[in-house]
Write a structure and sequence with these properties.
Layout: E1 8-19, E2 22-33, E3 37-41, H1 48-55, E4 63-68, E5 71-72, H2 78-87, E6 88-91, H3 103-114, H4 119-132, H5 148-160, E7 166-170, H6 178-192, E8 198-201, H7 205-211, E9 214-219, E10 222-228, H8 229-234, H9 238-244
Parallel strand pairs: 3-8, 3-9, 6-7, 7-8
Antiparallel strand pairs: 1-2, 1-4, 4-5, 9-10
Amino acid sequence: MSIHQKEVLLEIKNLHKTFGYKKVHEGVYLQLLKGEILGLFGGSGTGKSVLIRSIIGLENPDSGEIIFENQNIVGMDEQQLCKIRTQIGYVFQNGALFDSLTVEENLAYPLSEHTDLTPSEIKQKVDQMLNLIDMPQSHHLLPNELSGGMQKRAGLARAIILEPKIILFDEPTAGLDPINTKRLLDNIKKLKTTGITGIFVTHDIPSAFEISDRIAILYDGKIYFNDSIENIKKSKDPLIQSFVKG
């Protein structure tokens, strides 16, 4: 199915970003289609995380546009960005849970802040999420009582609890052993069956191939490659092959 037959949920146009003398983005163009997971590859320092942080206003591009729901996110104030962040979930590398709150309180927090749900409805939603990530007995645990894998899964649950339209995954499998990587990917696959849309930033090529519908490669400040997994595997381009073969 071509790009034009599916709804474009997010569009990045001619994005530029520098840090001091270092040019990170030099005209990035990218579209995210509704219902797909886009794998985003790139070497260290190519600006993959900077790109997805820009999508929720944690980084401010020098120029260009990030269009979501017919609005340009670039240049929005904090109040406008707060509304965007309820619709674009962000799964941080380390889970980014509040240390002093239990797992249940961490998951309940976005619901109590951004919805009118009753305490019993919030509890029901939290229970549902903890079942989804295979952590049904972890309500009263603190983050420091969780393994690294459990922290990441709890972070995933908190990022999706508001049912955002887009989920941004920032190196979600980094630091995980193969068993916990598989658990996290299984959780994301469950979400895929519900039709989620996401960007999966990673160095973990096998995981990206397992859950992504399309792959984009960020190189030298621009999107160097943007195509299906089938075509990335068939490509004879030496740079693309260096990612495929790791």
